[in-house]
Amino acid sequence: MTNILDQKDAAGLCAPLLVPATRVGLIVPSSNTTMETELPAMFSSQSEANGNRYTFHSARAHMKNVTHDELLAMADSAGQCAKDLSDADVSVIAYACLVAVMAQGPGAHRKAEDIIRRATEENGYPAEVVSSAGALITTLNRFSAQKVAIVTPYMRPLTKMVVDYIEAEGIKVLDSVALEVPDNLAVGRLDQSNLPGLARNLAREGADVVVLSACVQMPSLAAIQAVEDELGLPVISAASSTTYETLRKLGHKPAIKNAGMLLSGSV
What we know:
The protein is α/β, with parallel strands linked by helices. It has one domain: 3-Layer(aba) Sandwich (Rossmann fold), CATH 3.40.50. The protein has a 4-stranded parallel sheet, with helices on both faces. It has a 4-stranded parallel sheet with strand order 8-7-9-10, sandwiched between helices. Helix 3 packs parallel to helix 5 and helix 6 packs across helix 11. The protein is globular and about 50 Å long. The protein starts with a strand and ends with a helix. Belongs to the maleate isomerase family. GO terms for molecular function: maleate isomerase activity. Keywords: Isomerase. InterPro entries: Iso_Racemase_Enz_sf, MaiA/AMDase, Maleate_isomerase. It catalyses: maleate = fumarate.
């Protein structure tokens, strides 16, 4: 199939008509302000490289504060959000709240993804499914990572939950930073320019990968390449790993510039 079809315009001239865009569904917390900017930005770079077009369609699940109770309540609504999104006949759904899944216990991304997948199938519009929690683990495994260091915006108990989740998958967390920001809107306003300093101070001797933002709400896209260049290690985020695994589900080879080696197409 070609990327353009010929169609006569009003003047009778041959004009290009782009093929329909791939529809990407997002399930995000109601207070998320980052995923719907970082993901389209990365896919825009992908479009420049491969000519594919993408549109984004969101369902929002209530969550204001990043607390255990609100995270579990959000997780309970994932199936309904997936059903609603599938009405738009999206090709893939990204469940974009890493800690909402990890708060349910080790390995919970597998169950969460299955719930979302079944919801789309039962609604008659089956879609591929990625969760940010599962994407992070899958991406770390693509690097054959055995040891990592991570930065999170969460309170310390939730950060420990994320550490425990990663370690339950057989990956050692050498060090973690907990910025202890409970308000999810405030997380979205965190300054990315602080991330290089935070990464620099991580105890990362022997680390295979640095996770610059283990949260899709904490902005990090502008810092990933700079931190990777400085540290000489692969640097990823919850958002970049979600983008990578979403592209893989679509069968599109990543070719995104200035977002780290993960999305460059070299992994």
